Amino acid sequence: MTTKTSLKSKLLCAGALVLVTSISAQAADEPAETPSVEYPKFQTLRFNEDWSDFDPSLGNDYWDDLKHHKLNDDGSVWVGLGGEFRIRTESWKSFGFSPASNRDDSFGLGRVQLYTDWHFGENFRIFIEGESAFATDRDLPGGRRALDVDEFDLQNAFADIILPFDDSDNSLTLRLGRQGLSYGKQRLVSTLPWANSQRSWDGGRAILKLNNWRVDGFYTRYTPVLKYKFNDWRLGPDFWGVYATGQLGENDEIGVDLYYLGIEYDTARTYNGTTGIEDRQTLGARLFGKLGDSGFSYDLEGAYQLGDVGTADVNAYMFATQLAYAFKDSDWSPKMYVGYDYSSGDDVAGDSDVETFNQLFPLGHAYNGFMDLIGRQNITDLSAGFSFKPHKKFLVKVDYHHFTRSSDADSVYNAGGGVLRATAAGASDEVGQEIDLTVKFTVDRHLTLQAGYSHFFAGDYFTDTSGGTADEDIDFFYFQAVYKF
After folding, report:
1. How many domains does the chain have?
2. Phi, psi angles (nearest 5°) of residue 160
3. Which of 355, 350, 275 is nearest to 314 (CA)?
4. Could you tell me the residue range of the domain that residue 232 belongs to?
5. How far from each other are the two terminal CA atoms of the chain, in whole angstroms?
6. Which of 428, 401, 418, 301 has the alpha carbon at shortest distance from 356?
7. Contact, 263 vs 188, CB < 8 A?
8. Quick one: CA torsion of 184, 207, 417, 400, rounded to 10 degrees?
9. Distances (CA, A) of 260 to 193, 209, 319
10. Are 171 and 209 in contact (CB under 8 A)?
11. Residue 359: how many CA atoms within 13 Å on its side-chain side?
12. Enclosing H/E stretch for 404
């Protein structure tokens, strides 16, 4: 780690912490009495927040006047403003499983997001959100990546036409423009909020809300990040689909997701020795819910993929399961879970079948380890974890993952879908184990502090494929502060 990097990281952290602390102090100067209005919960996708019924005069928050500002006498035209400031420092040791000195580094990441939300009556809306993501010198391989830097760009910029049905909450929304997509548990489609620069898509979407169901149909083009230029949708693959979510059962106790997702790339892609233009469809379903008042909850998801890569046929699949138990009426609100994730790999390199699962646009960070080393492709992940709250504002969480290859003829893939380490003849299936410790402190409804430590125990696979030079365990530490308004 260079002195320059260390200094920049410290300056970034200090400046951002001063900013969020000063804002919180300003908010603390407001009256302490309980507001007579309920504040909408901040969402990952800020355009999903509903401030339409919010009355700033009934609240006691520093930002209230910005959230719903009337522009005409009857209040049918109004605008809302908001945003987020986020800083994170990361420290890595033996990045890439290598003991080389250039694989140890610490650096800072920062992100600013600001949005404006315009409502013209009940039937028309314009939402615009800008983002600036930046990083101090990152000396690890890859330097400052597109995951880290997006100097100035539009995260969201779309118009909605809302068509309500009678006097009910049912409606049809037609959306056109740049937008974030996030579905279900985000195993396959996510804006990847953990990354410093988030994903977005350009295109159209129809959102149907009918009784206790929501059905989205969309046709978009993924917009890759160009670090120092305006992001260009023409560079990404076409991405389309239908995603339905709702409830079943006498008391709507069973949650159901049903989906079809299609993706087509303009440039050739390679899976285990097979190269060609990829056109792939994904059919999937998910069941989730609680088992009465027992304290148990469950989440089951499976998906099958077909299509082609060049002249080869796609035949791939995944399934994920998680069973959790929350101890009722217990101090510290303890909760534990066990999980099993499987994604298929290719059995024969370079043949007429592609059996490697394509993870699409996942939130891998939440499911395959906080270090984001392992992707949902040719991997079997046995996981377990527990959490507890020693104080209402503190959350402590520990996660464990045991990774093995699903097919010994295919490679290990990273969280971005690229090859993390190419396979070799006779290589072990034992990929490794990861332990993640997370501590989260919610200062108030605006400010959240989070720190974590992770260790990856490199398995024999990395020894067998490294030539004896790159099979070190990896350590990762981070601290993050997020302020939303």
Report:
1. 1
2. -115, 135
3. 355
4. 3-484
5. 34
6. 418
7. no
8. -10
9. 23, 18, 15
10. yes
11. 29
12. strand 394-405
Class of residue 269 by CB neighbours under 10 A (exposed 0-12, middle 13-18, buried 19+): middle
| pLDDT recorded at residue 386 | 97
**Assigned token pair, 319:** 């399934």
Sign of CA dihedral 233, 238, 242, 246: negative
pLDDT tens figures, 192-241: 999 999 999 999 999 999 988 999 999 999 999 999 999 998 899 999 99
Does residue 14 surpass a pLDDT of 50?
no
CATH number at residue 133: 2.40.160.100
Strands (E), 238-355: 238-248, 254-271, 274-290, 296-309, 312-326, 335-343, 353-354
Q: How many residues does the chain have?
A: 485
Q: Is 46 helix (H, G, I), strand (E, B) or coil?
A: helix
* 3-class state of residue 25 by DSSP: helix
Token pair of 236 as six digits: 């990404």
Return the closest-CA partner of residue 317 out of 359, 364, 362: 359
Q: Is 149 helix (H, G, I), strand (E, B) or coil?
A: coil
Q: Is the pLDDT of residue 138 over 80?
A: yes
